[in-house]
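hey so u asked for the seq, here:
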Amino acid sequence: MKELEYPFDSQWILKKKKSIRRELIAGRSDFLKKKIAVLGGSTTHDILLILDLFLLNQGIQAEFYESEYNQYYQDAMFPNPKLEAFAPDFIYLYTTNRNITAYPAANASQQETEDLLDGEYQRFEAMWERLKDQYHCPMIQNNFEFPSYRLLGNQDAVYRQGRVSFLNRLNERFAAYARSHEGFYLLDLQYISARCGLDAWQDPFYWYMYKYALAVPFIPELSFEISKIIKSALGRNKKGLVLDLDNTLWGGVVGDEGPENLAIGQETPAGQAYTEFQQYLKELKNSGILLNVNSKNDMENALAGLKHPDAPLKPEDFILIKANWSPKDENFREIAQELNLLPESLVFLDDNPAEQALVKEQLPEVSVPKLQKPEEAIQLLDRSGFFETTGLSQDDLKRHEMYRENMQRSRQQAAFSNYEDFLRSLNMEAEIQSFIPIYLARIAQLTNKSNQFNLTTRRYTQDEITRIARDSRYLTLYGKLTDRFGDNGVVSVVIGRKEEEILHLELWIMSCRVLKRQMEDAMLDTLVERSRALGIRKLRGYYYPTAKNAMVKDFYSLQGFGKIAENEQGDTVWELSLTDFWEKKNQVIKVVEGT
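ran it, structure tokens below
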């Protein structure tokens, strides 16, 4: 729903929340369902109502547990049968500077100040550890907004007993905990409140009247930030951008004015705005976001603009460049197809309202921000939360390089008339073995991001993956693929649960960028070998159809499994006997032991 995309009208959302919800759920049944416990240090009711809307808009249907007013500590630290029965998938600790139990006095000694800081931090850390041990699910914790007054004026940020200094140091301790604990996410309340305006955010009327620690008009801002973290942790981030060129990456029309007359560089205000936007995009690329071009231009002119000496982005910063006179929705589809991504994985950015409308009409699942002014472009993308970070693996940082290498593989394939000869030319090598700690974060991430090659659509948190890796009832495999063009990273995951002589395949996923390379065959060969060694006599596979995984509907049949059950929803069960002779399927990938 476009009204729930940034920039949104908070007052309208608060006023129309019931009708918005009815519209979001009307006729839709494919939501990802999650349980979210909100433990609040102040009133939270409307925060949950608006959070519900943003999550529904991102395809997530939430069931909520809400603590009683200011009972966050009791719910966290003491037995709570109701919360235990709820079994949350996420816990959000909504605390603010209203929940600090004691600040240092202006005449407090350094030791007294440090003792107060230690005590406040330890109180929170004890809650986090208790909740982690009890519920084994991701947690979101606010840091603290600045205080509403500074007793020591500007020196409040300098002297240790100043409240600004106290909260800054406490925030850093929270950040240090988040850095060292997977599945613990910090919501930067200090930044959000400052961006919105601290005085307005902390309007005391709402505290004294309703016990809201933030002004009610800003509830949508907070709820949107919470939703961004949750959808990111669930693998629902976008993967890349599809960008126009003229008046989007630079000012002017390169085909009419020539590259030498474009607004880019430091000479003009407009040029500075476009330069900073390109610099921002380059940083996104360096963090793993895929950049592509979709421009109505001759290729020669497009490349001339991208080679402008003052332009931070160069042709090699893009995976695909479509510069032609085809309709932009067609180019967009082709870009997604060539990247082996669903169209909704990419964001379309164009300054032209007609092109925005065309792509949105033809591809309604695609996000199309309303870019109007170059000086607003960074803010528009940054605050939309398309690329919200909850984890930054090495595979993320190398994603751009991996996709460029994939383009090289595609070009190499065109030189071969025989597909198997092409596969052999890649000199592929696969590391396939049981889950190991170094890859647990990537494995969890892959379970949440894989939609097309995902047979059961199961999603796992890193805590769940860690527990499965340690559980002797499970057989686990990850597959990491390299070839002569580079390292594809961890691209396939299998989780099987042992039950007597049967291995139930609860998860089988694979990254679409290695489809049809025999990686699935190599995984199956290893799975058969490991299962037999454990005395397993049958593999039982499951396929649960979704709107996105039709491509693997016949996967088990093609792998030699026989169908033993099917229901009205199209869910199927397949079985493979391991008592017969097994002829290895993989003929082109060298399988090696992991390091």
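The mean pLDDT is 93. The longest helix spans residues 110-135.
lmk if thats what u needed
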